[in-house]
Amino acid sequence: MLLITAAEFAAALGECKREALHLEVQDTYETPEESEPFARFLAGEPDDYAWMADWAALIRETTGRGVAVRRARVVTVPHVDYQRWTLEVSRVNIAAGEEVRYLPRHLVSPDDLTADDWWLLDDRAAFTLFEPDGRWAGLAVTGDWQIVDRCRAVWNIVWQRAVPHAEYAVAGQR
Question: Which residues contact 118 (CB under 8 A, 6 or more apart)?
Fold first, then answer.
């Protein structure tokens, strides 16, 4: 596996030809980069989402080239505060061109999941890495076909069962 940084990840998205699929399986991510916006959410304060501008621009550029960018979140119900927040924040992702779906954890067997978050960037798997303090550390990327095939099989199960953001948010899953 090759460790890549955030800047290198942006370049990897730029190299995608078909799809960038992101599976999230944790209920919370306590990253320092999100701590202030998350605290504002918990306090009921408005957010202008300026902190997401670079990500939104990258997704617009990627989807503008015809690459499908999809994110599936496997979540525990009832939601923890962080997942309630992602339902709001995801609107920025969606406006930028991502397709986002949610799958309640109780509707999928743990055997059908992976323990880690990852991206499938066409035919490469990129596992999300975090520092001990929660900061995003980068991604471990591999083209090993057995790993990629396992991720794709998990993706297909989750994506098929997951509910699109608009339906999930309206259905009162909070």
Answer: 22, 23, 125, 126, 127, 128, 151
Q: H/E element holding 141?
A: strand 136-142
Structure tokens at 33: 């980069």
Name the H helices within the chain. Answer: 6-15, 32-42, 53-64, 81-96, 145-161, 165-170
By CB neighbour count within 10 A (0-12 exposed, 13-18 middle, 19+ buried), where does 105 fall? middle
Q: What is the C-alpha to C-alpha distance for residues 146 and 123, in angstroms, rounded to an integer?
A: 11
Residues 6+ apart with CB under 8 A from 169: 87
Predicted pLDDT of residue 172:
56
pTM, entire model? 0.93
Average pLDDT score over residue span 1-8:
86
Which residue type occupies 152?
Answer: R
Distance in angstroms (rounded) separating the CA atoms of residues 9 and 137: 11
- Helix (H, G, I), strand (E, B), or coil: what is residue 97? coil
